[in-house]
Specification:
With 437 residues, the chain is α+β, with helices and mostly antiparallel strands. The protein is built from 12 helices and 18 strands.
């Protein structure tokens, strides 16, 4: 499960802010990567499952993506277009032939090719209509298929795009908006795919001549309810409304929210699917926030992409990444299926140790990381004033590594009595990936 929200300059300190938590399987490492702008002579590119025509030119992109997938959960391009996508659950079945594009593939294609939010939405819908989205999205769960929604932003505008099969509807954002794992568009969408009404009626989701609500026609109510997406949307949108001039620091705080469980007594053992910062527990809560992003999109083209490159934003450090600067993929290392020297897996050892002694470890980790984040943000502001980001990205990753190394030397205390199911589930996840906690 995931959460994405956007705030336009009318409700921020002057920049468009798009933020996302990517929730995936606990052992599904997420990579930070950057691909430079390029001219292409090859005719096709291989997405996760299928080949499609390659563009003659692609823009520079900064992405956060599951290590095994071509596409990405979230990202930004050099033109200031940022996108986050969400799994949405509908009543339209899949053929399960893996002959389509993942929502993550569609996201990366749009970032590589579009110079505005409007152009990105058009790029996604064109490819959706041509290739469909019959593509398996699970890591170990090979039956995990879903349709997608997208929140697309640039420095001055944003669009909500929701899809089902090869059909879609979209609505322009006013001030702010959040999306989660459920369809939200009613009948007041601004544009839609050709033949959407006919498709709705033919599939038995709409009575002939009735008012077409995209959500009512296609939403799978059971899985949408079980995902607790409405609860999380209330948290993210409430967080934006509570701040008259949202900034990146506040956006990070929203991504770290545990909803109704926030407070000194929070423990991951009491977390639920209603938590924006999602902690996996077992069969009812099988997903974990495995990566987070806050993108500051500036009209002058000098964008800052804040990325954790690690799981659990409540225990993670956001680091600034800039276009044309140090490669975050080199600094963080690209993770693989098993524990390795990448940032994601090194931090995962700290994360899983902290789960056993959460209140104490959370306080210690946050004291260190809050100090660094405040320093990074001060330097980021100064860099945009002087128009020189210099070695900020390289230094931020280096300083984060030093703190991580110190944190890994801390002894965790005996957790005492914890949920038996919780303990057994995390033991199983640790054994499956070979991580010695």
């Amino acid at each position: 499960m995931c959460d994405t929200f956007v705030a336009l300059p009318s409700v921020t300190s002057g920049n468009t802010i798009l933020a996302k938590n990517s929730d995936r399987e606990p052992n599904e490492a997420q990579a930070i990567v950057r691909f430079g702008a390029a001219d292409h002579s090859e005719k096709t590119l291989k997405a996760t499952y299928i080949e499609i025509p390659q563009a003659k030119h692609t823009f520079e992109v900064i992405l956060s993506k599951p290590f095994w997938i071509w596409g990405a959960e979230m990202g930004v391009n050099e033109k200031g277009v940022a996108i986050g996508n969400e799994a949405v659950f509908t009543r339209i079945p899949f053929a399960k032939k893996n002959n389509g594009l993942l929502g993550m593939d569609l996201l990366r294609i749009a970032l590589e090719r579009a110079d505005s939010a409007t152009a990105a939405a058009k790029c996604i819908t064109d490819h959706l209509e041509t290739y469909g989205q019959d593509a398996m999205s699970g890591y170990h769960d090979k039956n995990f298929y879903y349709h997608n929604s997208f929140l697309i932003a640039d420095p001055t505008s944003a669009i909500v795009l929701e899809t089902v099969d090869r059909h879609w509807a979209l609505k322009k954002v006013k001030d702010y908006r959040s999306i989660s794992n459920g369809l939200t568009l009613e009948s007041d969408f601004d544009d839609s795919s050709k033949g959407l009404r006919e498709f709705s009626e033919k599939s038995g989701r709409l009575k002939h001549g009735a008012n077409l609500s995209f959500r009512e026609a296609f939403s799978d109510r059971f899985f949408t309810y079980m995902s607790k997406c409405t609860v999380r949307r209330q948290t993210t949108e409430g967080g934006v409304r509570a701040n008259s001039k949202l900034d990146a620091r506040t956006a990070m705080g929203i991504l770290r929210s545990h909803g109704a469980h926030d407070g000194p007594g929070f423990s991951p053992t009491i977390s639920s699917m209603g938590s924006v910062c999602l902690h996996a527990k077992g069969p009812v809560t099988p997903s974990q926030t495995t990566g987070s992003m806050v993108a500051e999109l500036r009209p002058n083209g000098k964008h800052t992409v804040w990325l954790t490159g690690s799981a659990a934003p409540c225990l993670s450090l956001f680091k600034p990444v800039y276009f044309g600067s140090a490669d975050p993929g080199v600094l963080a290392g690209v993770p693989t299926a098993a524990p390795d020297a990448s940032l994601w897996w090194r931090h995962e050892l700290l994360h899983r140790r902290a789960l056993r002694d959460y209140p104490r470890m959370h306080q210690l980790i946050r004291e260190e990381y809050d100090r660094l984040e405040n320093d990074f943000m001060r330097k980021d502001i100064e860099a945009h004033q002087t128009k020189d980001t210099g070695d900020l990205t390289k230094n931020a990753f280096h300083e984060g590594d030093l703190v991580l190394a110190r944190m890994l030397k801390l002894e965790t205390r005996d957790p005492g009595l914890m949920s038996l199911i919780y303990n057994l589930q995390w033991k199983a996840w640790n054994n499956k990936c070979g991580l010695a906690v």
